[in-house]
Amino acid sequence: xxxxxxxxxxxxxxxxxxxxxxxxxxxxxxxxxxxxxxxxxxxxxxxxxxxxxxxxxxxxxxxxxxxxxxxxxxxxxxxxxxxxxxxxxxxxxxxxxxxxxxxxxxxxxxxxxxxxxxxxxxxxxxxxxxxxxxxxxxxxxxxxxxxxxxxxxxxxxxxxxxxxxxxxxxxxxxxxxxxxxxxxxxxxxxxxxxxxxxxxxxxxxxxxxxxxxxxxxxxxxxxxxxxxxxxxxxxxxxxxxxxxxxxxxxxxxxxxxxxxxxxxxxxxxxxxxxxxxxxxxxxxxxxxxxxxxxxxxxxxxxxxxxxxxxxxxxxxxxxxxxxxxxxxxxxxxxxxxxxxxxxxxxxxxxxxxxxxxxxxxxxxxxxxxxxxxxxxxxxxxxxxxxxxxxxxxxxxxxxxxxxxxxxxxxxxxxxxxxxxxxxxxxxxxxxxxxxxxxxxxxxxxxxxxxxxxxxxxxxxxxxxxxxxxxxxxxxxxxxxxxxxx
RNA sequence: GGCGACGUAGCCAAGUGGUAAGGCAGAGGUCUGCAAAACCUCCAUCCAGCGGUUCGAAUCCGCUCGUCGCCUCCA
Length: 485
Known about the structure:
Blueprint lengths: L3 E4 L4 E4 L7 E6 L10 H19 L3 E6 L6 H10 L3 H18 L15 H13 L3 E3 L5 E3 L15 H7 L14 E6 L14 E3 L1 H13 L3 E7 L3 H16 L5 E7 L2 E6 L6 E5 L10 H6 L4 H8 L7 E3 L3 H13 L18 H23 L4 H21 L3 H17 L17 H16 L3 H13 L2 E6 L2 E6 L2
Parallel strand pairs: 3-4, 3-9, 9-10, 11-13
Antiparallel strand pairs: 1-2, 5-6, 6-7, 7-8, 11-12, 14-15
This protein binds one RNA strand through α1, α5, β9, α7 and β12.
């Protein structure tokens, strides 16, 4: 069965065929490093992490490029506010971003290029465009690209230049020939960090960096280009215009993949009215990745994100993670060392139960692949994982062989791993580790009470701990406990 | 204002022409000292509303209502 992927450019699902057999070139827009990333940024990273992992599961080698925009107005402002060098700002947030992505189990990209380390290439590209007459230095020192020099301008957004112009609300920049033109090079104001160029001191515009880096690290044409849906216009539209103008090759990108945006509740401080809007630093309805990591198992966010299709918008609520945590726990409990999963090398077991489990294991893989082949349908893929969890638990209870149980659990771990879920690491609830010895003491004490059939007292211990947020479970081979709100 | 996306059970969410996956919550049952977990059963005659096409539509078309996004930095 063929892998299908939706393409923003064509507006439909297409068969996935790479330029070079066996290799996927993928460019994903990273973040502008002027502040801490929020879980909306993480959502995008997680989305493309899963897409990448599935390509690899399907046998592709993936060349994965994620850029850092490390120079722009906000970075300069931040540096001025803190009275530090702009570079110390970007270094701080790049390191933080990478640390956080590691914690979220996002695979490292092949390359993380930075705009300021690609300035020579950017200037060369702009020069080519200017020489060709498709870009022009303006009176204010900026260099602009003539958007309409590309005949297909607007194709990604599915709007004609006329429609794009008609919709424009912004004041027309005097220096531009046409309001759709966009900056390739921005002239430096006094005191701003700058690089020397044929058009004077300045810095690269935002759009050109991605074109130049994508071409440098992946070639004139690439397979997949990803990013948040908010980047479709103008950022990605402009990338297409520049890149195709530079290389003369079309299409610049075979498959444009955009993830839906994370939304969050926002309460108006004046009216007290709540609304749901895109999670955004400027709106102030964000949850930073750092905060999330303090909340417990980082896989929670992944589970939450993967629970809806990547193209659809997703709304974050306070309860989101409770549900995600519970479902995560349901899956991961299959790897609990406290359950009796039998001897992996034992083929003895009830034939019927063993056969049913083996059948279910195969069906889970088939169903998982079919779901993922269909434009990375992770909600459907996860549903197949839940089916397998049920069959594994059933197999354990009905006497399937140790070997079949082991194989089924390994399959679950492998498929979960394709989604980036750390299946064999038990879910970590939030809660203080300091209380562990005290809880252990109480659990041991309660065991003695149970042995002595002092059930009333044993139950008092359990109830008391529950009120304190510690939940006890008596399993066949002992008592487990965990934090629970 | 222009363009686009979406609207499925109490909640989250798959399903793009053949008669509604999965998770959470809820109800009943098995097991257990009890509870929890696990397992079994139940839980949308119906997919925002109204028309239309079709033997047949949640799925296609039109209109209405609602939500969100982009058009400005943005994952």
